[in-house]
Amino acid sequence: MPPSDHRPGTLIEGGAVFPHRHLTGIEGLEPHEITFLLDEAERWVDAAPGGPEKRLAGLTQINAFFENSTRTLLSFEIAGKRLGADVVNMHAAQSSVKKGETLIDTAMTLNAMRADVIVIRHMSSGAVRLIADKVDCPVLNAGDGRHEHPTQALLDALTIRRRLGGVANRRVVICGDLLHSRVARSNILALTALAAEVRVCAPSTLMPPAIERFGVTPFTDFDAAMEGADVVMMLRLQTERMAGGYVPSVREYHLRYGLTLDRLERRAPGALVMHPGPMNRGVEIDSAVADHVERSAITEQVAMGVAVRMACLDVLTRRRRGVEGWA
Length: 327
Ligand code: NCD
What we know:
- The chain is of the alpha/beta class and about 325 residues long.
- It is about 35% helix and about 15% strand.
- A 5-stranded parallel β-sheet has the order 7-6-5-8-9. A 4-stranded parallel β-sheet has the order 2-1-3-4.
- N-carbamoyl-L-aspartate binds near residues 71 and 72.
- Reversibly catalyzes the transfer of the carbamoyl group from carbamoyl phosphate (CP) to the N(epsilon) atom of ornithine (ORN) to produce L-citrulline.
- Heterododecamer (2C3:3R2) of six catalytic PyrB chains organized as two trimers (C3), and six regulatory PyrI chains organized as three dimers (R2).
- InterPro entries: Asp/Orn_carbamoyltranf_P-bd, Asp/Orn_carbamoylTrfase, Asp/Orn_carbamoylTrfase_sf, Asp_carbamoyltransf, Asp_carbamoyltransf_Asp/Orn-bd.
């Protein structure tokens, strides 16, 4: 963690500490800091529609999205608006990036706009950290390349916690394109920090080397991985990040790694099914599972996304808003 990110001794309600200026990843967060953000999100889950406090009134939030997104952009926009922020969206297609502007120039431009908080999605791993180091306001990572997607991991942890009563000691299987997935990386970091038992499953071509060092158990056999699972989290085949053939065919992939209702009922009948979206129905997940009323938590994940993003926007702007106890 670079020194610029660290403000030791910043007190927060309850005497806990959240010393980070930015949220660029789950990496570097202590377990109690993750729990703190989840606790903060809880208050927004049940907030009366139309009536949450306008804590960000008068602040400008820029959502700078250099890569396509539907749910994450919308979720950050709704979260900011519910808190009363002036939200501005910048899409790469309309920006100077297409004209060859460097990342540093983009950062300087965003900074000159005097935003109070910037949310960034970028196709390059590490781009968000680079921009965060160049601007004066808090920066939230909405997904950078294959690196991290911290708010996705937080919303997933919140969904598990609310559905299963906790994360610790729950057996979570993450199956799919682990090699290209920032969601997998952030989830592995968050779930292991919260003491879940994490199993990862993928064909060997899509399994990152030495993944055990993250404290997870790798499987290439999906049926074996699913045995006794409390949560099965499916990931999309990220074909846009693949150069060449990582899987023999989509049909073959579905046969070995697709979550069908039959497989779920045979291997982990009580498990909660999750997917960050967008889903490839019939590839990594069948509609019968994705739309399963009791088992699927997929729409709940989307709902939790707004609450988690409200919490992150609120917490990261407290110092700027002069909230008492936030040095
Ligand atoms: C993911 C992403 O963009 O990283 N989606 C999301 O944020 N909900 C996963 C993906 O693209 O497959």
